[in-house]
Design goal:
The protein is α+β, with helices and mostly antiparallel strands. The protein has a single domain (3-392), classed as Chorismate synthase, AroC fold, CATH 3.60.150. Helix content is 32%, strand content 19%. The protein contains 11 helices and 17 strands. The strands form 6 sheets. A 5-stranded antiparallel β-sheet has the order 8-7-9-15-10. A 4-stranded antiparallel β-sheet has the order 1-2-6-3. It has a two-stranded antiparallel sheet with strand order 4-5. A hairpin with a 2-residue loop joins strand 13 and strand 14. The radius of gyration is 22 Å and the shape is globular.
């Protein structure tokens, strides 16, 4: 199975990830990963930190001559701003300075509950790690997972589908066309008309010293039937995807397929009818079974059913406001207006890239769980044999 850990603080020297379980023989490069890192930093409404950092990955282990070798892969993203924080974030006792402690917790952040849990009197010990800056290295991990999935014809694409209550219209476009349109959009959306209204909304909340949230959608195409399992709670693919997406900073809700709309409709308007067409197999499909609708979002009973996997995530507005909210000093208990750290007005397009990344990792994990193998060639043999089996089912 694939697993990974990240380490590092927002203003520390670097962010690091170690990925275990990537089969040998997968081609990856720093240049390819950097494309995804740049996508995460872009988007209309980003703030000052994006002007400081230009994220670049370093591959430190597990890859030789452009291919994975089966050992753990270590990825590093250096924080350029570290040069200004070397004493404030120093690991050495000699640099301790009680005068720079942060005791004023910001509403909507992990500051106060984290300080209470870990017995800190300086919330910087919490905010540095809880910062969404950590997602930079998760995007790097997701880029490796995306390369693995691409070897099996599986693509993962993220879009902004709602922002400030303004919804993008898909209008029956194919997934390939959606990707083309979103790639040209500053808001990673496929609806140019909605994008203009979204931008106007971002401008209005910026003027008011406020922030904007939204909804992102990730579509997985090419996933075969049979990823995940119904037999245990922690093997269900939708459960694993939901946990991964909910682990992202500022994500407050997840739905798959119709999601919450399933509770508002009768069953006849929810469940996807099943059809069979043998000619689909002769055209190269893995199975003759198919559905004309995809309300289930490609997962039934915790198992992928061969349709597109569709998952959406709700991102709350960023809690650091330029018109600050009220809070209480942790030590003096005095009321104050929350401090303002560098912040975005809207980071929903970046969230689309991050959600893509964690979804790619979980789908890759499920693929390896199903087909196994220590090398890409071995996984390919197992995968091809399974696809042949599906065609004969």
């Amino acid at each position: 199975m694939l697993r990974y850990l990240t380490a590092g603080e927002s203003h520390g020297p670097q962010l690091t990830a170690i990925i275990e379980g990537i089969p040998a023989g997968l081609k990856i490069s720093e240049e390819t990963i950097n494309v995804d890192l740049a996508r995460r930093q872009g988007g209309y409404g980003r703030g000052g930190r994006m002007l400081i950092e230009k994220d670049q990955v370093q591959i430190l282990s597990g890859v030789r001559w452009g291919e994975t070798i089966g050992s753990p892969v270590t990825l590093c993203v250096v924080n350029r701003d570290w040069v200004n924080w070397q004493e404030k974030m120093s690991p050495h006792e000699r640099h301790r300075d009680e005068k720079i402690r942060v005791t004023r917790s910001r509403p909507g952040h992990a500051d106060l509950p984290g300080a209470m849990k870990y017995n800190h009197r300086d919330v910087r010990n919490i905010l540095e790690r809880s910062s969404a800056r950590e997602t930079a290295v998760r995007v790097a991990v997701g880029s490796v997972a995306r390369a693995f999935l691409a070897a099996f014809g599986i693509a993962v694409s993220g879009f902004v589908v709602e922002l400030g209550g303004i919804k993008a219209e898909r209008r029956g476009l194919s997934s390939d066309r959606l990707r083309e349109l979103a790639a040209k959009s500053e808001l990673a959306t496929y609806d140019p008309e909605a994008e203009e209204r979204m931008k106007a909304f971002i401008d209005s909340v910026k003027e008011a010293g406020d922030t904007a949230g939204g909804v992102v959608e990730v579509v997985v195409t090419g996933a075969p039937v049979g990823l995940g399992s119904h037999v245990q709670w922690d093997r269900k693919l939708d459960a694993r995807l939901a946990m991964a997406v909910m682990s992202i900073q500022a994500i407050k809700g997840v739905e798959i397929g119709l999601g919450f709309d399933t509770a508002r409709r009768p069953g006849s308007q929810v469940h996807d009818e099943i059809y069979f067409d043998s000619s689909r197999i002769t055209r190269g499909e893995a199975s003759g079974f198919f559905r004309k609708t995809n309300n289930a979002g490609g997962i039934e009973g915790g198992i992928s059913n061969g349709e597109e996997i569709i998952i959406r995530a709700a991102m709350k507005p960023i809690p650091t406001l330029y018109k600050p909210l009220s809070s209480v000093d942790m030590l003096t208990k005095e009321t104050f207006e929350a401090t303002v750290e560098r912040s975005d007005v809207c980071a929903v397009p970046a969230a689309a890239v991050v959600v893509e990344s964690v979804v790619a990792l979980e789908v890759a994990n499920a693929l390896l769980e199903k087909f196994g193998g220590d090398s890409l060639a071995e996984v390919r043999r197992n995968y091809d044999a399974y696809i042949d089996y599906l065609r004969s089912f």
